[in-house]
Design goal:
Two copies of one chain form a homodimer.
Chain A: H1 13-16, E1 20-24, H2 33-44, E2 48-52, E3 58-59, E4 62-63, E5 77-80, H3 84-97, E6 101-104, H4 115-126, E7 130-132, E8 138-140, E9 156-163, H5 166-178, E10 183-188, H6 197-206, E11 212-217, H7 223-236, E12 239-243, H8 248-258, H9 265-274, E13 278-279, H10 283-295, E14 304-308, H11 311-323, H12 333-342, E15 354-355, H13 359-362, H14 366-375, E16 382-387, H15 391-400, E17 408-412, H16 416-428, E18 433-434, H17 437-457
Parallel strand pairs in A: 1-2, 1-5, 5-6, 6-7, 9-10, 9-11, 11-12, 12-13, 14-15, 14-16, 16-17, 17-18
Antiparallel strand pairs in A: 3-4, 8-10
Helix pairs in contact in A: 3-4, 6-7, 10-17, 11-17, 12-14, 14-15
Amino acid sequence: MRARFPGNFSQLDPFFKPNSVAIVGASDGKGKVGRLFMERFLEAGFQKLYPINTREAEVLGISAYKKITDVPGTVDLALVLVPPKSVLDVVKECTAKGVKGIVVVTAKIGEEGVEQEHEAVRVAREAGCRVVGPNCLGIYCPEFRLPFSLGPGMEAGDVGIVSQSGSFADILTKVGTAHGVKFSKAISCGNECDLHAVDFLEYLGNDPETRIILAYFEGTKDGHRLNQVIREVTRVKPVILWKCGITPEGRRAATSHTGSLAGVRRIWEGLLNGAGVIRVHSIEETLDCLYAFNSQPLPKGRRIAIISGPGGPAVGTVDTCVNLGLEVPGLTMATKEALRKIIPSFGTSVENPVDLSFSTILNPGVYGEVIQLLASEEHIDMVLVISYGGEHFIKAIDRVRRYSNKPLAVSLLGPLESIAGDFKFLLQNGVPAYLDPARAAKSLAWLARYAVFAEVRT
Amino acid sequence: MRARFPGNFSQLDPFFKPNSVAIVGASDGKGKVGRLFMERFLEAGFQKLYPINTREAEVLGISAYKKITDVPGTVDLALVLVPPKSVLDVVKECTAKGVKGIVVVTAKIGEEGVEQEHEAVRVAREAGCRVVGPNCLGIYCPEFRLPFSLGPGMEAGDVGIVSQSGSFADILTKVGTAHGVKFSKAISCGNECDLHAVDFLEYLGNDPETRIILAYFEGTKDGHRLNQVIREVTRVKPVILWKCGITPEGRRAATSHTGSLAGVRRIWEGLLNGAGVIRVHSIEETLDCLYAFNSQPLPKGRRIAIISGPGGPAVGTVDTCVNLGLEVPGLTMATKEALRKIIPSFGTSVENPVDLSFSTILNPGVYGEVIQLLASEEHIDMVLVISYGGEHFIKAIDRVRRYSNKPLAVSLLGPLESIAGDFKFLLQNGVPAYLDPARAAKSLAWLARYAVFAEVRT
């Protein structure tokens, strides 16, 4: 594959495409991280797995080795889980074995100071080997059966994650796969003793398997390079990014979390906003945004139609849309006429927002016809639907989404328990679903904003 | 009971405390609104219920009458569901019968213009009777077995709702009761031909059964009076308010929805912000805010401790808290020492946010000890906990919440299906739970802001 922009990517391949993996510090012990990783690799069905354990001959039924150098045949990737004081020695053994990628899950290299860390990186690089971590959760790549710690699905997709927080990547992959998102790769970079988040951002930008990128950043040691890379990547695919540590208190927390230099707020704001990054500010926002980008086309403009059963939330949603920079245009006379034929006159409205009122409780199928009608309107670019859910509604949505080439988002209202099933069904079937109309509106607004950026860029 | 502030409230009592109710336009027909209301009253166990139907002798097994004047004995409250052209006649019959409260559910009084509406109000008032609606869902009052259309629980509590949107009140009561909130009264005011939302706001403000008020406003016909009432009410209890129709497009939608005059944005902003109202901007925000006010004490200050398993979201939550005006203070040496005895050193942090990292996956009970420790710190006013949930975690929270007198909020992270049960359990047991840390932070910030207002006020 031709690189989309210049860069040296082959050095990172062993992290995503290893044929064989050693887990140094693998364990049988209940409640041990060494057991968690072993279990995940076995669940994922990874084949050439070598547990390294100084005392046991077997870990979870798999033959173990005392040292990585005892393993017969090659080892492409090593996960290191041993205590901080032993990491440097393990790195040396890994390079002696010819390992090309090392992931240090352990929180530190050496018990104090940075000397052992520097030495580990020097040794690795000299041997043509790169290091991820320390203090990370490693790499998730379903195509090559590389698992992740919370155990997301192992079906490969085209959403990539690069994260300076392990748990961010963990939660996103776990919740995402439960809701129908499939991932190409996820990288938890940790404290970045060698490879940085920006290296992986560049890698994912260039990766033909990755269509959308999610990123969690706390800081960078090279703002200039990040600026350059981020501009290159946003030119070819959407980057949904959460910058944490933006306040002074957050910066202090970031330093304590991953040792990041979180930097000055206004420099980050300038960098990210200038680069066309889609900025989010919570896990929920990241997922909300992802659901829209994952399944919906970009809108041709910013004109939205709102279709609602409940009337009040529809009025509030108009405010939300307008405040987000969307337009809520009036409908044409012809459309209103057509609507009047579909919905009863009792307490309804054929304006925009279309207020279906009670008619949806009595006939939830009415949604399908109304969506189809509005989505085929020339002066409507996208459709937001508000509903209490239910079997008929879900069927209607499932039918119309196949025929519409305009972005659609659904907000379900009701007790969590009673809408959780519909929520999951919609997401798994390519309809972004939200638990509040304001969040559906925000997600469509992100699509519209990115569409403008993509237009200008080309 | 002594009125908390002056006002004539006895005229509104028949709407909440009727001994007998007539449903004019009650029906057996499937998919009819007249059936929906009948079913709800029967489910609620309301005793003296009189269906009025011009053709049937029985509705759902209850003796029906052709006219309300045929009912033996008195009728306190009438719900009117007949077509618009018949409403005025029904109102006249109601007053002849001596009814003291009429709720017009029907979208309009008369098919065109406002003449019949004005006449209906004149006739009613002359007879000492008041009217709610048209275009509303009526009254929910569990203490007196008055049901609501989505069928919320019938256990009485102390949260009141006044809403110009029926669906807002509907959703709030439905979702609220599913999540452990109990209501005193909810009023859907509709198009306010006679009684206005402000009348009910005043009533709820004076109602000893109501401790917290939720309000949805689109507009008002008397801004001066609203300003006066809202200031009186916020002096004695928290008012969580969503003002819709704040943008020009939203105003247009409000007019089409309830005929409200939504008014100019800056006038509303001034009125609401000056009155110490807690302003929310979506259904989700309203519920989020309610959950905190419903079960938590007011904090003594704005210093928050964040306790998290996942590290990344904790850093982001610090930003969120600071941006919301909360303080995230450092911990004392003594607290850090005490924390070090509870949590392992592997990848954790004993700063604020406390990063429990992997230790929570391996030992979710650790949360309980850490919360207890921080909640007893003098320099901490409230505690926000971030977790993946699970049995041990829930047990730990359930234990500590009994001993803490500081506000606590929990954010659960994970796929909706797997956390829905924990979410519900926490809410039903007096712990405000959120699906994102940012929302938990926002809710605690609302409490802290109201605490300052309450302090200044007294």
